[in-house]
Amino acid sequence: DQRPVTQTAAKPATLPDAQTVTEVKHWTDRLFSFRVTRPASLRFRSGEFVMIGLLGDNGKPLLRAYSIASPAWDDELEFYSIKVPDGPLTSKLQHIQPGDEIILRPKPVGTLVLDALLPGQRLWFFATGTGIAPFASLMRDPDTYARYDQIVMMHTCRDVAELEYGHQLVDSIRQDEMLAELMGEGFADKLIYYPTTTREDSDTMGRITDNLVSGKVFADLGIPPLSPETDRGMVCGSLAFNTDMKTVLEGFGLEEGANSDPRHYVVEKAFVGDGV
Ligand code: FAD
Ligand code: A2P
Questions:
Q1: Do 254 and 151 lie in a common domain?
Q2: Quick one: 234 and 151 in the same domain?
Q3: 132-153 b/e with 16+ CB inside 10 Å = b?
Q4: Are 221 and 258 in contact (CB under 8 A)?
Q5: Nearest in space to 235 (alpha carbons), one of 252, 218, 256
Q6: Is 230 touching ligand 2 by the criterion CB < 6 Å?
Q7: Do residues 212 and 173 both lie within one domain?
Q8: Which of 78, 108, 138 is the last residue of a domain?
């Protein structure tokens, strides 16, 4: 039958690469996280990102890059998102609810993967804002703990409320019985969490760059300064943050690596924008 098929308005268009939202949590008026079903065929390395989105008003997919925040062993996929008031995608995405569908292109890529680093003793995660998302995945990957003696998560936001997702995540990792079983008792002691704020008073304050250069973070944690012999780093934030972090890490003698050329640190933008 070659007759054209007429679609009725009542029938919702089926999304290409559709996945179903299973949970949504709003953290602040600028931040939310959500979980979706995982395509059975999707394999990814913790730290990678995929393209996700919704159908735009023109009926075409409106997609943006998103770091997968859940670990590779999880049945579902988790994302941690900004809400940009006039953002083409997030002005809509922030209203999703369990049962809704989103588009997810199952082609994970990215530089923030363990294989892009040389072996070392201590792995540092440096993130601002939603840049914590890839590390939310890596912090829950047993391979991270198998490869390093210590993992230091430095996360900086303007205010305390913006740190809450990371706080709860670290708490949940430390209490996770399944991870403890996989990793052995005491694995959680390897994870050091160093959250700071810059525009609201909190226990520990200051930009990541400043706390590294001044030596405050090393003094606070009682660990030696960064060295290419022992330390590896992953950076995820605004372009301005990433650029400044490169200068800081190179100042400690660390060199930038890539999937094809593993070295001491790797960098990925948390978003493309007017960060400078
Ligand atoms: P856009 O038109 O895309 O952005 C509008 C403006 O909002 C940008 O110019 C920028 O100034 C600002 N902005 C965008 N994203 C952010 C952000 N995350 N934090 C602060 N300001 C921002 N976003 C996430 O929320 N979570 C992620 O895990 C994530 N992972 C990414 C990974 C990569 C590799 C890249 C390149 C981007 C990632 N982004 C992430 C940003 C994301 O792709 C979109 O830009 C974001 O969802 C906003 O989409 P939008 O269409 O609403 O607005
Ligand atoms: P600050 O408040 O001093 O600007 P934003 O919300 O603007 O994306 O910033 C998120 C966090 O990243 C803020 O705490 C901000 O500190 C910090 N930050 C922004 N730019 C840089 C940078 N170039 N180097 C280090 N930290 C930065």
A1: yes
A2: yes
A3: bbbbbbbbbbbebbebbebbbb
A4: no
A5: 256
A6: no
A7: yes
A8: 108
Tell me whether residue 156 is in a domain: yes
The rounded distance, in Å, linking the Cα atoms of 234 and 237 is 10
**Residues 191-235: tens digit of each pLDDT:** 999 999 999 999 999 999 999 999 999 999 999 999 999 999 999
Residue 102 sits in a domain of what CATH number? 2.40.30.10
pTM: 0.95
245 C-alpha to ligand 2 centroid (Å): 11
User: Does residue 36's CB lie within 6 angstroms of at least one atom of ligand 2?
Assistant: no
Residue 161 has what DSSP assignment?
A: G
Of the candidates 169, 181, 124, 177, the residue with the CA atom closest to the CA atom of residue 149: 124
Going from the Cα of 252 to the center of ligand 2, the distance in angstroms, rounded, reads: 21
Q: Are residues 101 and 122 in the same domain?
A: no
ipTM score of complex: 0.99
Number of structural domains the chain divides into: 2
